[in-house]
Amino acid sequence: MAEVLEVDDEVEEFLVKFMVRSGQGLYTWPENPETSWEPKASLVCSVQAPVLINNRGHFSFTEENFEAINCNLLKVSKVAKFQ
Questions:
Q1: Residue in 72, 70, 20 with CA at minimum distance from that of residue 41
Q2: Which helix H or strand E contains 27, and what residues bound it?
Q3: Which of 41, 48, 55, 68 has the smallest count of CB within 10 Å of its CB?
Q4: Residues 11-68 pLDDT 10s
């Protein structure tokens, strides 16, 4: 999962910040941000931003978001754009 930080329409790439999986259905932001320019073709789908579920920095996505992601995993990468 990743948040889109910037879009470069000229070269058709996104600057994304990756989350780290932290348990079943949970994600966190790493201490050292992991960013990368990724081609637009690697975008699986857009989902709602995750919800903070505890004070340890764990985030969760809705079941609807997971279903949308799973339906589109045949694409190149596992990057989802937050709305």
A1: 72
A2: strand 26-28
A3: 55
A4: 999 999 999 999 888 999 999 999 999 998 888 788 888 999 999 999 998 888 877 7
pTM, to two decimals: 0.72
- Count of domains forming the chain: 1
Phi, psi for residue 65 in degrees, rounded to 5? -65, -45
Domain range for 76: 2-82
**Single-letter amino acid, residue 79:** V
| 13-18 and 34-39 strand pairing | antiparallel
- Residues 69, 33 contacting (CB under 8 angstroms): no
One-letter amino acid of 63: E
d(CA 54, CA 60): 10
